[in-house]
Design a protein that fits this description.
39% of the residues lie in helices and 21% in strands. With 297 residues, the protein is of the alpha/beta class. The strands form three sheets. It has a seven-stranded mixed beta sheet, sandwiched between helices. A two-stranded antiparallel sheet has the order 1-2. Helix 1 packs across helix 2, helix 2 runs antiparallel to helix 4 and helix 6 packs parallel to helix 7. The longest helix has 15 residues. S-adenosylmethionine binds next to helix 7 and strand 6.
Length: 297
Amino acid sequence: MRGACSMTYRQLYQALLADLNQAGRESARFDATQLLSHFCRADRAFLLSKGDLPCPEPAAKQLWAAAKRLKQGEPLQYILGSWEFYGLPFAVGPGVLIPRPDTEVVVEKCLALMQAVPAPAVCDLCSGSGAIALALWRHLPGAAVTAVELSPEAATYLRQNIQTLSGGAVQLLLGDVLQPLPLPKYDLIVSNPPYITLEEMQTLSPQVRREPEMALYGGKDGLTFYRGIAAGYYSNLNPGGWLVFEIGCSQQESVLAILQQQGYTNLFCQPDLAGLPRCAGGQRPIIAPGDTPDAPC
Ligand SMILES: C[S@@+](CC[C@H](N)C(=O)[O-])C[C@H]1O[C@@H](n2cnc3c(N)ncnc32)[C@H](O)[C@@H]1O
């Protein structure tokens, strides 16, 4: 066959697996399957049924180039250029945080809180790839969703994901969430902000270090964004509106204390599937102390 490499798909898979194992990749089998599927369009089913066919040379070349990048420490997700979150394919690459399964608990909680709110107004602060904003837009009928992001690199992926996954319906605002932004009132404000402490930054794996520092570092104690957002966006919530955060495993107490201090009520902490506290939030009271209820007509 013209342009075919000397290896069959199955031989290529086995050679790649051996190469990644030799390089000490713990997830060698998963990586090899993903790379073969992406660069050679050969998933498991294809390997089983057509694994004895020769793989085209250009695809095999791309596969080995990708394996080299992986062995040099680049995240698999960046190499593939796309990663699934909440059943949706997000464009990702250098400069944007890779959406994590940990964040799905945040989306679940937001959906539960907005279940009874028709066409809610939602704002996702520190939106990154748009994982939360777009998952919510997809699952909240009629929702008006705004995504706020500061990094121009991350915003490139965000813009692309907004186009592909919402046809441009989600509004993108480039801005610093720690500065006053011209935003209206929302039924839900959600954020997975940077929350890694200075100490934890020193212990990150080489792979996580490839992700942008500004997506990870949350100030010395990891709480800068929780303080800034809880204080700065209270008035951007409709009475009865919710503020929902993703939090680090050990931040439950501190974040709930911040929310309480700022006047939020009905505070909650939602564990993820592993039972770890990964989502916390609270509600702007419908009638706050000092508010005068509207006089009856
Ligand atoms: C932990 S990532 C979360 C990304 C995305 N929401 C997710 O869950 O995958 C935090 C994001 O906040 C952005 N960011 C950092 N500082 C910011 C700021 N001051 N204003 C707006 N966005 C900021 C980073 O660029 C990054 O995209």
